[in-house]
Design goal:
Layout (H helix, E strand, L loop, with lengths): L1 E2 L3 E7 L5 E7 L9 E4 L10 H10 L6 E5 L17 H14 L5 E6 L1 H12 L4 E7 L7 H12 L7 H12 L8 H11 E4 L2 E4 L7 H4 L11 H5 L6 E6 L7 H10 L4 E5 L13 H14 L1
Parallel strand pairs: 4-5, 4-6, 6-7, 7-10, 10-11
Antiparallel strand pairs: 1-2, 2-3, 3-5, 8-9
Helix pairs in contact: 2-3, 5-6
Amino acid sequence: MSETTEFSDFFYESADGLRLHARVYGKDRKGRLPVVCLPGLTRNARDFHRLARFLSQQAPVPRRVVAFDYRGRGLSAYDPNWQNYTVGAELADILLGLDALNIHRALFIGTSRGGLIVQVMAAFKPQVIAAAVLNDIGPVVERQGLEAIRNYLDNQVRLQSLAEAIEAQKKIHGHAFPALADEDWAAMGDALYRIEHGLPVPDFDPELVKTLTSGDPDQPLPQLWKEFDALAGRPVLAIRGANSTLLSESTLAEMAKRSPQMETITVEGQGHAPFLESGDLPERIAAFFDRAERR
C-alpha cells in the first residue's frame, strides 16, 4: 500500500489475473461496520473522495471506507476483452476484493452501476450486505436515461485542458444540475479525467463504450425486481435526483411499496446521479448507517 494523508491504495488480483485497485480511507474500527462504495459505469473511486473523507474522519461514528475501481476504470487494469465489462464480472471482482481486505459484512453505497451490483449481490451473497444506499438506481433502468448516457459517451471530443473539460461537463449536464456550485463541477472533473500527455482524457477504457452501443436498442431492458426484493429485511436508503431520467418516480414508488421500511431522499436541483458529498447528504447517509448498525 502507498500511503497518503487521507487514504491508501490497495491492489489485488482478479480471478482472471487483472490487477485491480481500491482506495481505503480510515482504519478498521472494532465493532463498527465498514462502508463500501461502488461507482457508476464509467466512474471510479475518486467519485467518493469527499464523502469518504467525511465518513472516515468527520462523522459522529467514523468508519473505514473502501471505494473500488472496477476493471477498466481508474487505477485498475484494462480488460483485453471488453465483453468482460459486465455486472457479473464486476461483482465477482468486488467480492474478491472484500475477501482480500478481510471484509465479510459491510454497509454499501452503490451509485448507478454500483447500485445494480449491490442488488445482484443481494441475490447471490446477501450475508455481505448489512445495509445499502442506492444512489439514483433501482430495479428498472429507464431507456431515456440510458440513451442519454450512451449518446454522451459516444460523442466525446478531444479536450485541451481540465478547465475546458469541466466547462464541457457543465454544458452537457448543467440543465439537470442547477444546484451544483463551481467546486462541485471541479470535483467532478478531477474524478472523471486523468491527465495524459498534458491533456485530460476520461479515466476508463474506451472499449467500455461498446457495452452500451453493441446491443439491440429495441430489446427491452432487463429488470431486477427479484434482486431488489432480496434486499428485504435490510435497511435501504434510496436517493433520487429530482431531475433524473434513469430512475423514475414510479419505480421509486414501487420500490417503497415492496420495501415499506425503505427510506428515500429526493435531491432537488440534481439529476443522474446526485453528488453524495453535496448539501446535507453526508450527514444523512452517516445517520442512516448508524441507525442500520443499531438494528
